[in-house]
Structure formats: structure tokens, C-alpha cells
Amino acid sequence: MSAAPPPRVALRRDSPLRFLKGVGPQRAEALAAAGCHSVEDLLWHLPLRWEDRRRVCAPAEVDRPGSWTVRGRLAELRLLRTRRRGFVIVRGRVAGGGAQLPVVWFNQPWLMDRFADGDEVLLFGNVRATEGGLLEMLSPAVHGWSEAGGEGGIVAVYPAVAGIGPAAVGRLMEQVVPVLAADPPSELLPDSLLAAWSLPRLAEALLAIHRPGPAADLGALAARSDPAHLRLVYGELLELQLELMELRSREIRVEKRHHYRIDEESRRAAREMLPFRLTGAQKRVVREIVGDLQGRAPMLRLLQGDVGSGKTIVAALALLIAATSGLQAAFMAPTELLAEQHFGNLTRLLAGRARVGLFTGSSADADRRRALAAGEFDVAVGTHALIQGGVVFRNLALAVIDEQHRFGVAQRRLLQAKGERPDVLVMTATPIPRSLALTLYGDLEQSVLDEMPPGRTPVATEIVPGSRRAEVYRRLRGALAAGARAYVVFPLIEESEEVSAASLEQMGTRVRDFLADSPSAVLHGRLPAAERDRIMRAFTSGEIRVLVATTVIEVGVDVPEATWMVIESAERFGLAQLHQLRGRVGRGSGASRCIALHGRLSETAGRRLEVFATARDGFAIAEADLQIRGPGDLLGTRQAGVPKLRVADLIGHREWLERARADARRLQPRLDEPELAPLAARVRSRVSSRYESFAGG
């Protein structure tokens, strides 16, 4: 591979990529679609790996298969055409040190135009042993000795981008890396901060990654733990944390106008509402929420806890405070079934203390909307229907959002817009790893329920192959005969050609026939709301003993008498979802069991089920899920508006996330200082663009 000739114009960071040799209009368009518009964009296309070409050998020193960097002179170069149309082979030898090494290149005819016999070159590639025992070099990278600088080194290998292969990307990078010296990127971080963490400046870091020096630590580069990578990681995480804190600052800058009445009368109403004594964790979280409600700025708080830790009762107490203060509250859930279940629970808890209305796609009629606008409902429980244009509140003061991960910043803003700076409490269905919480919800204060209510019984969990299905259902039939109630959960309603998994339609009837001695029913999200409600009431009362369902029962269902669960095709579920499903049993004093039936297991599915079988704590399960799935998959469900991380890894760089978080807390109030002006401009520009797109300015 030869060096590219000088570009046609002096390149700068903002130069369009069409000015690069090898980039025509079509390739420029493909690069733009992949997010690479300028030279600076390409400079952030970091190497995938690095090849160690520092030890340069003569052909005579090559004595075994492996990766070698060889210096010598080319000889006997020839082009061989094959019977395969369009496929050619270039053969030759590289000579030096009194020996010759055969070399072969596949489908690279351009080599014949670029090199000739006698040229001194530097080759890097794999050497293999042929059937006759001779050594041969296969398709090595080739540089003229003079263009290689007269020595080997550590050479970056890039991932493909926009259909452009690694070798071609490498040729583009040869043209753009010199721009780091000619037009270095602006350094946003103050020297004092870089010195505190022993990190290089941005231009120096990028150069060290693209062109490592001969003394570079190859292992640290590969692990992205060298100072250059850590500069990019820290800068990215610091900017993100500052953006989230700046966003929070904008949201709480204007004082709320509503006030809550928290006195002895409201405390008595809360005590009378509670069906049981709160845990220590619940009391602590209630105090945190009450403190926010009494504050001048709107509450922005995330509540997370394990399955069954009592998040709903905490939210109900906040709703009660709003209702007894003459204010309105909203409770938004992601599905109709979950909204219906919350509506039923909150109606019972708040009976005689608050007027609760249900607003879903099938229930938000004009009369209910008029009643809500007139203030005749204190609490509106619903789905996305709550944020539709026709839904108006008289004085919305508190918004509670359940399963926040199924919504996003945009939906949260729309609900907030229904009132004048309402307090916001968002809840997660299961715990999330701290690193993910700081990334997704860094603009929210956080409360954690880390204590389970008394009376919960451990759930015995078994992982069983589908070949033993009959045995499992015989055991279940015996348990039902002894008075148990059970869930049987399927991942699909109907059989699918794309997904190999048990479906409710395919196997549900067979399961119900086998368990015919016990009354059963089918429950899924396509049933009419009234039918779903009738089935759930019948299961709660014991009229129905077996609920054959999809994952609509994974949250919000509380039937203490249910002690058995069978999960079909368990390999199709995520770890957090399995944990949520298991949380539907073990809610009473009876011994409970969850059996996960599985089909063919991939390595990842096997690890997931192994964790599910052994771990009980939702916070430990969340961390394991992050390790198994990786941050990319989990961040795929991120809120709209949270940027994708380009360099940082939430598993490998947790320590740097904590450092960035702590530094951002210290720096955010000082962003108006001259030393921080470049960083402040970047942060505020990004926040404004995202904030305005979601909040209308």
C-alpha cells in the first residue's frame, strides 16, 4: 500500500470529506449517511485494533507460521489469472538476508502497477506452512521502505464504515491524521482538570490513538485503558453529566406555583390509608419525596426498587398528598392492562380520600375528559392517552410515570406540559445498574427501595429443558389439586415463522386441557379491557385457578395466593423480565416455585438462565444483565435525547463515570468562569438543542 499523494486543498478539521483522495460524490454521500461529514468526524472514527510491526525481520529470519513484519526486495512478481471470472492472484518473492520468502496476494492486481521487481518494501501479514512444508506469506500489507519511514511500528487497523473496507479507511486516515497538527481540535477541558487526572490534551490523545509511538503499550491500547483513550472517555462522560445537570438546572430554575398541605390531618389520612407498616426504606423514600414536594423547585426524582419492594404504595402516598391539598395528580403507565391494574389498586387505597379516573385509549371518553378539566377527578390514571391533546387538567401538580424506560424524555415533557411546572416522580419496574442510572437518568435525583416488606417467601427457581415438560405439568397438576393457584407464561400470542418459541395459541389449549381439573383462563393484551378485568378478578378470588398468559402479567399483578409459575421458552426472555415474572409469586406466606422451561440455548441465554436460577436480589441481577448484554443493548432502550456514547464503555469505565459525575457536580455551578467558557458553550448548546426539541424552547 503506498502513501496517498498530497490532497488537492489544504485540509482543515471542517473540510468536507469530498476533498480527500478516493472520496467521490457517491462515497461522500455514504459517509455522510454514516455520520461522517467532515475531516473531524473521520478523526473520531477510532481504530478497531493495532498491529505490532515493530520487530522488522529479514526473510531469512522467518522460521515458523505466524504474524511477521519483513523487510526485503521484491522479485519475480507476476499476475496469474484464474478460471474464476474476475479473480486474479499476484505471486512473487521477497528476498533478503540470503533467503527468499514466497508471497501471494489475492485479487489485488493494482500491485503490479505500483511495485516492480527490485523495490525495497516492508511487508506485514500472516505466514503459513504449505502442504509441502514451505513457508508462504499471505496477502500482506505492503509499503515502500522509504514511505514506511525506514522502520516498522504499531499500525492502526480501522473498522469498516459506510461499506468502505478497513484498508481503504486506513488510506483515508493517512490523509486526515496530519490535520491534528495543522488544525488541532479545540481543547474544552481546562489544563488544571487534565493535570488532576494525568490526561493528555485532546489533539495529543487522538494522535496517540491513530499513530501510537514505538514505546506505546499495545495491551493498554487494546483495552482502551491508555491515557489517550481515557482522555476521550473522561471528556465524553464529563460533558454528558454536565449536560444532564444543566438540563436539571433549567427545569428547576423557575419556582413552582402550587403548594401542598402537609399537616397533622394529611398525616392522619396517610396512616389510615396504609394497609401495612412501611419498611424503613419506604419511610426514607417518602421523606425524600415529601421534602421535594415542600421545596420551591419542581421535584425531578427517580424511584427504583426490586420487584415487590413497595413502589406503588410510596407513589400512592404522594398522590394522596396532592389530592388532600386540592391539587390534581397523574399516574401514567405504558400499557392498558397495567393502567387498569394501577387504577384498581389506587381506587381501593384512596377510597373516600380522592376521586380516581381511568384514561386509556378505550376509556378516555369526552365525559371523563370534561370531568378532569373541571377538577372532578383528583387522580388520573392512564396510558399515553393522558398526553393527548384533548386531555386537559384543571391544576396538575404531580406527575408519576411508571416504567419510565418504556417512555422517554419527549413523553415526560408532554405530561409535564399538562400542568404548570408539576412535580415529577418516575419509577422503574426493576432496578437498573448505577452506571446506567447515571447515564439515562442523570438529571433526576434518585431514591432506592433496598428493603423488602416482611412476609415475602423465597421463590424456588428451577431451570428445566423442554424435553421434561410433561413432568413439570404433572407436578403442577398435583399442586393445583392441593389448592395452589398458578401462572403459565408464553412469550408469544400466536405462532411465528420468524421466532422459534412456544406460543399461547399453539400450546395454551394443550396446557389447559391437561390441567382441565382446575378452572383456567387465557389473558393477553388483545382482549377487551372489560374481559381482562373480569378474568383478573376471577383469578384473584380463586374462581379461576390457572392463568395462561403472555407477559401482560409481569408487573402490577398482586395475588398472594398464587404460588406456582411455569415460564415457557424462557430463553426468549430478558433477565430483568424473567425476574419481574417471578415476582408475581412468593407474595404471600405459602411456599412458591418458578420453573423456567427452555428450548435450545445459546451461550448468552444459558448464562442468563444460570443467573436467574441463582440470584434473587434485583440489584445483583441488574448488574449481571449489564455484564451479559453489554451497555449497547441496554442503552438501545435509552430515553430519546440522551446521546449515544462514542468511546466510553459503561462496564469498563465505571470508575471514570463516577469521577466525571463528581467533577460535573463541582463544575456545573462554575460554568460562567472564563476558564470553563469553551466547555460551557458546548454543554449549553447541546442542552438547548435537545431541550428545545422536547420542551418547545
Characterise this structure.
The N terminus is likely disordered. The chain is 38% helix and 19% strand. With 697 residues, the chain is of the alpha/beta class. Strands 11-12-10-13-14-9-15 form a 7-stranded parallel β-sheet, sandwiched between helices. A 6-stranded parallel β-sheet has the order 16-21-20-17-19-18, with helices on both faces. It has a 5-stranded mixed barrel with strand order 3-4-5-7-6.
Short description:
With 697 residues, the chain is α/β, with parallel strands linked by helices.
SSE layout and pairings?
Layout: H1 25-33, H2 39-43, E1 49-52, E2 56-57, E3 66-81, E4 88-96, E5 99-106, H3 111-114, E6 120-129, E7 135-144, E8 154-157, H4 166-176, H5 179-182, H6 191-196, H7 202-210, H8 218-222, H9 227-252, H10 264-273, H11 280-294, E9 300-305, H12 311-324, E10 328-332, H13 336-349, E11 356-359, H14 366-373, E12 379-382, E13 396-401, H15 409-416, E14 423-427, H16 434-440, E15 445-449, E16 459-465, H17 469-481, E17 485-489, H18 504-514, E18 520-523, H19 529-541, E19 546-549, E20 562-567, H20 575-582, E21 592-598, H21 603-614, H22 618-635, H23 654-667, H24 677-695
Parallel strand pairs: 2-3, 5-7, 9-14, 9-15, 10-12, 10-13, 11-12, 13-14, 16-21, 17-19, 17-20, 18-19, 20-21
Antiparallel strand pairs: 1-8, 3-4, 3-6, 4-5, 6-7
